[in-house]
Amino acid sequence: MNGRKRAAVKASTSIVHVPNQEALVLPCRILQLPRRTIYEILSRLPIKTLFQCRSVCKRFLCFISDPEFAKLQLSKSQVCILIKTLPLQNASKRLQLAHVEANGSTFEVSKLNFTPKSNLPTIDISHMNACNGLLCLVGSEKDYNIYVCNPILGEFITIQPPYKDRQRGSFWGLGYSAMMNQYKVLQSYYPAMESNNRYAMAEIYTIGTGTWRSIGSAPIDTVALPFNAFLNGALHWFPCTPNGSEFIHTFDFDSEKFGTLPPPDHFRETDKKFTNYSRIGVLGGCLFMIYFTNSTRFDIWVMKDYGVKESWIKQFVIENLYPKQGSWDFYEPMVVLNNGEILMLFNNDAVVCYNQKRKNLRGTKFFRTRSQFDATAFTPSLVSLTNVAKGEQISRQSLKFVPYSMYQAYSDLSVSVGYWQCRMQGTKDYDKLCTEEFQDCADCGALLVNPSCSFPAFGVPYGAVTYHMYGLYQSWSCSSEIVSDPVEYVKKTVIEET
């Protein structure tokens, strides 16, 4: 490491020893920048680095805890993949966060434990949906509570349901009203088991008020709520009906009204039966829906201009699929990489990647488990429940990030690829994301990962964090020049961009 690099990774508060005098403390030069410029710099950092920056100094903690900074960071936050292993002993309460590098050539997988030791029940919890980096969690049939949490900050609140017994056909969804600057939980349910009336009711819980209130009737059969379907202040879903649906159902959190959105023009009466196999969600900041033409092909339609029927375009065509005879496979698009490949969840069993040019589907070996799992696009944020919840008690837990960087490796889905036996730092051998040894039956040349190269949670020193921020110029400029004065460079670059 040359002299310039050693200087860059020093702690931002330097101590200069002068003979026969007390140590002279030099101020952090990055703090001399305008607050707006500092916010622009910090908002471009990965969520993991931001989380660690909170422990650097009080000023950084103040900056990162500012609700205005949380809004800016959310607007720039990169989409990650949130993974939840389906019930297998204690695995069902553990969430994993996978960060996908922007160039699509590497994956960085970080373990994120959300397993409170005493506050949450020991029974299984299923995550229902996400909104602005917050998760809405609901317990199993034996637990009637609703939990809203920020897994990045380790904060969660417990919401008591309006009734002691879980109502028939209940579903829940978390959303945000930009007009009122409030987060709300929607519950739709059928009032009584013995009733023959086909109607449903809806109630709203505004976080911070501590109370539920009725908003009248709700559409029937609204139980198929996708995890990643909050966009433009509304939730979106296809209702589960025997004959399918010709409309996309919505709930707007500003007006607190149910509504519908039109599907693409090609959507015919005979196509309604396929809506129970379709998927709807958010991809690249736009609403998408999957339309199955047959069992070996489906199209991904994207609504470029929200609410405008004519803006639906067929953006992706996924073909050459080979499902088992007499069955249908399920796909959940999550991330579109810069090279045009699409990362998708396949049958709750694998994360696969589709190459549009070659028209082939390949399995990603960076994630493999012995059990099924849920995986979905998730945008992490620093939205703190402290600034949201006023009438609820906030519980906290300490979280650990154990990062791994690994190269993307593929194998054809028709070839057996074995499994990963994984060991995460500080844990027992378990069904984890990152591999110490990979048994590759296909012999595709996948790289082995050595867990010893990881660093302990919160083990990044102040100087390394400072170097990471100064190193941002590499992503803002194609030049490989050596920057002699990083602060002046950051001033010039950020001011020009903003």
Automatic annotation (TrEMBL):
F-box domain boundaries: 27-72
InterPro entries xref list: F-box-assoc_dom_typ1, F-box-assoc_interact_dom, F-box-like_dom_sf, F-box_dom, Gal_Oxase/kelch_b-propeller, SCF_F-box_component
Domain of life: Eukaryota
Pfam families in UniProt: F-box, FBA_1
The protein's name in its UniProt record: F-box domain-containing protein
Species of provenance: Gossypium aridum
